[in-house]
What does this fold into?
Amino acid sequence: MKTTGNSLDRRNFLKRTTLATLGTGSLLVLPQTTNAFPTTNENEINIFGPKEGFTPQIGTLISMLNWMRSVILNPVRGMSIQDLDYIHDKDANSIGAMLLHLAATERFYQIHTFEGKNWGDWSETDRSSWNVASRLGERARKTIKGNSLDFYLSKLNDVRQHTLEELAKRDDNWLMAVDKNWSWGPTNNYCKWFHVCEHESNHNGQIKWLISRLPSAK
It folds into this structure.
């Protein structure tokens, strides 16, 4: 009986140790249907981690995308067309153009990661819709103007909804798949989509800088 008890103790110890290890960074070895952490819904913006309706790592990515999007949108709420069109100097982009640029960048990664297309393979519809906003610069300064905030919010929302629909169809193995031919070196889909989040963070600083210099801010 003593030997049996020791054996059970060892098995219990190993089981507890294994579970603890999985909980500190080895989530990817779990089956796709297994979730080591409780899921939350998309409205719980400040809780990062798995989300309902998505595999664990994809849900965690969506946590980051949602949080960053809220940071981008909060400062521009209620902004007028005049403020959205404001050009600080000859090399600057307007806030409106940058919001559309964020939607264009996300659309680029949709086309690339969901449809397997590169820039040269874009449809005429996508080129017409997103080319100027994607590149910004002089053409954007001349053409992206006169739009209400609702116009930009609608574009951002439509693109994001498509992202969520497509990510719901995929799993963590897809997210970790490596593209060995990506321009900055071997890169997985997780990194590509984290870049969408990081890219918004970059423009968040620019947008806030412009807001502080709007004529209406004075």
Notes: The radius of gyration is 22 Å. The CA atoms of residues 22 and 36 lie 8 Å apart.
